[in-house]
Amino acid sequence: MPTETLESQKTETSPQPSMPEPIAQAPEKEKKKPPITAISIALVLIVIGGILGYRMWSFNQTHAVTDDAEISTDTVSLIPQVTGTIAQVYVHDNQAVKAGQLLATIDPRQFLAQEQEAQANLDAALAEAKSAGVGVDLTAATGNAQILQNQGVVGQAESGIMSAAANVAKANAGIENAAAGRVSAKASILFARSAYSSAQAGVSKAEAQLTAAQAIVRSAQAAVASANSNVSTAQSTYNLAEVTARRYQNLYQQGAISRQVADEKATAAEIASSGLAAAKQQLAAAEANLATQQANLDSAQQGVKSANDAVQQARAQVQVAESQSNAASAGYNQALAERSAAQQAVNEAQQRQKQAEGQLAQAMTSNTQISVSKAQQLQALAKVEQARAALAQAQLNLSYTKIYAPIDGMVTNKQIDPGQLVSPNAPIMTLVQQKGAYVVANYKETQMDGIVPGDKVEVTVDAFPGTTFQATVQSIQAGTGSSFTLLPPDNASGNFTKVVQRIPVKIVFVPGQKLLDQLRDGMSVTAVTSVKN
Fold it and tell me: Do 163 and 302 share a structural domain?
C-alpha cells in the first residue's frame, strides 16, 4: 500500500513540471499587442491630418494662391528729341515732380540759329513766289503786243531798282547800327578803364588801411605788454604790503609797536590791493582793445584781397570791352562795303532799265512763256511750303530743348548732368508714377479656372509683414508670360517637355488703404484670389 500510494503520488505529481510552460508563453503574447496609448495617438494624428487636409482642399477649391507676384507701377522713360548739350538740370534722383514741371534744358543756341535761318528762308521763298506771280502776270500781259512786253521789262527793271534801293537803305541802317555799336563799345572801354582805375585806387586804399591796422595792432600789443608789466609790479607791491601789514599786526598784538603804526601798514596793504585791481582792469582793457584791433586787421587784409580781385575783374572787363570794340569796328567796315555793293547794284539796275526801254520785244510764243512762268510760280509756291515746314520743324526742335515731366512721379535713374551731350537714342531719366501701384500675379494655368475680373484678392507684401491689402482682379493677359518673351519657346521639336505655364493677372488695390503710398516697383508679394466656381 505504501508503494502504490507512492506510485500514485508520483503519477499525480509527474505532469506538474510541464504546467508552467504555457504560463511562461503568456507574457510573449502580451508584448506583441500594441499599447492602447500609441493607438490613441495615431488615431488623433489621423483625425487632425484629415481635418487639415480637408481644410486645405476646401480652401484650394475656393482660392488661388501664388507668390510669383510683384508690385508694378507705370513708368515713363524720358528720351531727348534732339541732340545737344545739357545746359541745366533742375531735379535730382528720387525727387517727386508734377506733370509739366521743367526737368532739364538743352543749350538752345544752335536751334535758335536754325529757327532764324528757317525764317529767313521762308521770307526769301515768299519773295521769290511773289516775284514768280509777277512774272506770270507779266508774261500773260506781253503775249499780245511787244509794247506791253517792253513795259513789263521796264517795270521789272524798276522793281530791281527798288529792291537795290531797299538794299542800300538796309545797308545805311546797318552802318548806323554799326556806328552806334562802335560808340557803345568805346563807351564800354572808357567805363571799364574807369572801373579798373577805381579798382587800383581801391587796392591802394585797402593797403593803406592794412598798414594802419598793422601799426594799431602793434601799438595794442605793446599796451598789453605794458599792462602785464604793471600787473606784475602791482602784484609784487601788494604781496610786500600784505606781508608787512600782517607782521606789524603781530607786533602790535605783542605790544611792540603802537596801533597807529599797524593801521598805517594795513592801509598801505589796501592801497596796494586797489592798485593791483586797477592794473588788472587796465590789462583786461588792453587785451580787449588788442582783440578789436586784430579783427580790424583781419578785415583790412580781406579788403586788400577783395580789392585785388576787383582789379582782376576790371582788367578782364577792359579786355572784353576792347574785343567788342574791335568787333564793332569790323562790323562797321563790313556795313560800308555792303552799302557800296548795294549802290553798285542800283547803278546796274538803272542801266538795265535804260537798256529795257531801248529794246524791242521779240516775238515769242506767248502760251509757252505763260506755261513756263506758271511752272516757275508753282515751283516757288512749293518752296514756300517747304520753307514753312522747315520753320515749323525748327520751332519744334527749339521747343524740344526744354524737357518737361509728362506725368506726376518720382525721378529715378537720372543719367544727365550739365555739359553732357545727349541724343535721341538714349534715355536720360525715368519717371515712376507715385500713385496707382498694382500687382502682376503670375498664376499657373491650372489655377485659372474661376478667376475672372472683379474677384476679390488679399495681398501680403514681404516688406510689410502682418499687413494685408485688399484688392480686386482687373484684367487677365491674353497669353502666357512665355508667349511674349524675346525668344518664345518652340514646342514643335522632338525634345518637347510639358511645363506648366503661368498667366499674368493684373490686380489693383482698393483705394484709401494705409501704406499704399509706400509700395515700390518690384516688391515681392503673395496674392490670394477668391475663385468663383
Answer: yes
Range of the structural domain that residue 395 is part of: 80-107+371-422
Q: What is the pLDDT of residue 359?
A: 62
User: pTM of the prediction?
Assistant: 0.44
Residues 89 and 165 in one domain: no
* DSSP state for residue 425 in the 8-state scheme: T
Cell of 388: 514753312
Which letter, b or e, does each residue of 24-34 get, where b requires 16 or more Cβ atoms within 10 Å of its Cβ? eeeeeeeeeee
What are the beta bridge partners of residue 525?
69, 461
In terms of average pLDDT, the best of 58-72, 187-201, 373-387, 476-490 is 373-387
3-class state of residue 469 by DSSP: strand
Same-domain check for residues 409 and 466: no
CATH value at residue 281: 1.10.287.950
Cβ atoms of 210 and 303 within 8 Å: the answer is: yes
| Contact of 422 with 114, CB cutoff 8 Å | no
User: What type of residue is 245?
Assistant: A
User: Would you state the cell numbers that stand for residue 15, as one nine-digit string?
Assistant: 505532469
Task: Dump pLDDT digits (tens) for 370-412.
Answer: 677 778 878 888 888 998 999 999 999 999 999 999 999 999 9
* Number of domains into which the chain is organized: 3
Of 297 and 457, which is predicted with more confidence?
457
Position 52 in a domain: no
Sheet with 429-432: list strands edge to edge: 75-78, 429-432, 409-412, 96-97
Same domain (yes/no): 227, 158? yes
